[in-house]
Amino acid sequence: MTSTGLLRDVRSTPRRKVLISGASVAGPTLAFWLNRHGFAVTVVEKAGAIRSGGYPIDVRGTALEVVRRMGILPQLRDAHIDLRRLTFLDGDGSEVTSVNPHTLTGGVEGRDLEVRRGDLTDALHTAVRDDVEFLFNDSIDTLDQSCGHGVDVTFRGGSRRTFDMVFGADGLHSRTREFLFGPEKQFHRYLGYCFAGFTMPNTFGLSHELMMWNTPGRAAALYAVGDNDDVHAFLNFAHPEPPFDAFRNPEAQRDLVAAVFADGGWEVPGMVAAMRDADDLFFDGVSQIRMPRWSSGRVALVGDAAYAPSFLTGQGSSLALVGAYMLAGSLADRDHAAGFAAYEHNTREFVTVNQEQVGEGDATLFPTTARALEQRNTMLRNLSAMPSAEGRPAHSALTLPEFMPMT
Which of 24, 144, 210, 359 could form a disulfide with 223 if both were Cys (CB 3.0 to 4.6 A apart)? Predict the structure, then answer.
């Protein structure tokens, strides 16, 4: 058959219907590219709308090419935070040193992006909202692949529909993953830390900078993304085992963090008090998801649901963007089985090398012993005299293939 005949034959085939669970970063990105490849896409999101606000996130390396091909790079450049200084403090609040952010994170000044999470999710949603179906205030209740020709989905809202494929883009604690593979603990790699994040009034005069206080096993940071009235506050601490009792209990989270930082210096007492009253507290363990395979039958996982790298790598959003692009492209001219196999084959090495960035950059910022903290401080003082980084090879370890869109 000629290529023209093949194209005509493909276009005459009914559009494959797919469901994506999750509308943060991976979900809308996957929806955008699947729609471009001729799929009929539905996105279900348990929240009532795209979540605004949120902490700053990075878009680096290969992921920059994904957003460029989506046409949203100029919008994200306009939203770039332009963090200018990282200042590190000793336990008594005295300054250790200040460094250029890119020198520490492996970002490339003038190229890599740091934006508010809400700015990225809004740009992604805007790029696709007119072309796909969004179901807010709903979620998947059951998945059934026993019919053999699709996936029967029952939604929490009571409706039932059948899709050719389903994708879990529902984050670190993915319910879709649990439906397919069982409890999270078998794939959960806890990295020995917990953190609490929230916003509080910027009474510190900070602008486009981050200040971090450390003692062994504890860190408190204030991050001013601009000249705003609020700052992002983070309280990070070593904890030998995941505090499972606290994960689903906000009051237990507050009590745990307050106990760990009870004798903290600098601005820590005020931060703990602000955490007590915060209505946007986010608490979790610092962890990765590592899985031997990312799909089962007609259901596949993408982003943090399949391969969360942890915030210590700074690569969560970038992996979500790249993984979604690769998954959609792998399915463009393949059935689900061959497409999922191609997705894993062509993406896993990139995922692995970025997950292994734990231990570099941000991960060295939270020493657990006095000796390790002094070694870190010496490293930071040496860094302050170095020029900006050229970028970590892991961030650009995958060259995006060109997948020919259907539309």
Answer: 210
